[in-house]
């Protein structure tokens, strides 16, 4: 059974049917870890800052489907010996954005579109990286830690983008609903939402069930190829994404 057959039970599929070749507003949704960011920033937050044996045990439970990604992530971050303020500082200092991300974002914004990050990660390490890169205009859909930034774990968590009324995956974020909401709010059926990602689970669901155009690398690219889902590969930079956005926005009159 293919992924999008399974996830049809969890996520609402595309809420539109575009026809013809005319495209309105162009919008982009990025995954964060190992996509917009060049590395797995979430992993860098706990490696060396949490007991390795405890992290391994939590990972084994998740891989055995005994716990959801949300539960696994909470378990691991609650093992860390730092506050979110300390981790935010490390993220900003050590993590970088993939080359040509700025150019993609500026072209989308200049043409009237919206750029968002939809991540199963947590806001306290994502937002500082965006801010340092000058990409604070990007909308962020992720898990949140609501504890005081100076507090040590266990933390308090919130999931405003899980959309559990339409997605029963017990996830951190429903990327399908992020995409569909963006489409509804930015031109409706004649607009286009591009998804850029690297992983399985929520990335694969978004690629199969919601996005109009997919750019992929890593496991997501393998999944799309295996399941005959159209996807364009990206590598060290976002040149393929930028070329596509330029071609679409130039047709629409953007400079």
The total number of structural domains is 1
- Helix coverage percent of residues? 40-55%
CATH superfamily: HAD superfamily/HAD-like
Q: What is the makeup of the main sheet?
A: 7 strands, mixed
Question: Quick one: overall form?
Answer: globular
Strand order of the largest sheet: 4-3-2-1-5-6-7
Q: In the CATH hierarchy, what is the class?
A: Alpha Beta
Classify the beta-strand content into a percent band. Answer: 5-15%
Distance between the termini: 44 Å
Helices, by number, come to 12
What fold name goes in the CATH topology slot? Rossmann fold
The beta-strand count equals 7
Mean pLDDT: 89
The arrangement of helices and strands along the chain is: HEHHHHHHEHEEHEHEHEH
Q: Report the radius of gyration as a whole number of Å.
A: 18 Å
What does this structure look like?
This protein has 255 residues and is of the alpha/beta class. The protein has a single domain, classed as Rossmann fold (3-Layer(aba) Sandwich). It has helices spanning 3-7, 32-36, 41-46, 52-63, 69-77, 84-94, 101-110, 123-132, 175-185, 202-209, 218-226, 239-251; strands at residues 26-30, 115-122, 139-145, 157-158, 192-197, 213-216, 232-233. A seven-stranded mixed β-sheet has the order 4-3-2-1-5-6-7, sandwiched between helices. Helix 10 (202-209) links the parallel strand 5 and strand 6. The protein is globular. Mean pLDDT is 89; it is low at 1-10 and 17-21.
């Amino acid at each position: 059974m293919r992924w999008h057959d399974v996830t049809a039970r969890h996520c609402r599929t595309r809420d539109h049917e575009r026809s013809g070749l005319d495209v309105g507003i162009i919008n982009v949704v990025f995954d964060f870890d190992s996509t917009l960011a060049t590395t797995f920033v979430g992993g860098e937050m706990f490696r060396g800052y949490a007991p390795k044996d405890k992290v391994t045990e939590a990972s084994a439970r998740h891989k055995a489907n005994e716990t959801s990604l949300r539960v696994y992530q909470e378990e691991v971050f609650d093992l860390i010996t730092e506050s979110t303020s300390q981790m935010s500082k490390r993220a900003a200092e050590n993590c970088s954005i993939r080359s040509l991300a700025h150019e993609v974002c500026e072209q989308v914004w200049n043409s009237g579109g919206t750029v968002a990050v939809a991540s199963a990660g947590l806001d306290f390490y994502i937002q500082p990286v965006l801010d340092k890169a000058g990409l604070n205009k990007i909308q962020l859909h992720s898990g949140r830690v609501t504890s005081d930034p100076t507090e040590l774990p266990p933390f308090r968590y919130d999931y405003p983008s899980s959309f559990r009324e339409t997605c029963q995956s017990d996830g951190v974020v429903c990327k399908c609903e992020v995409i569909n909401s963006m489409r509804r709010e930015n031109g409706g059926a004649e607009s286009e939402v591009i998804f850029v990602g690297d992983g399985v689970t929520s990335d694969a669901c978004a690629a199969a069930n919601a996005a109009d155009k997919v750019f992929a690398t890593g496991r997501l690219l393998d999944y799309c190829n295996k399941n005959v889902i159209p996807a364009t590969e990206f590598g060290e930079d976002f040149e393929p994404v930028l070329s596509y956005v330029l071609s679409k926005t130039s047709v629409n009159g953007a400079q």
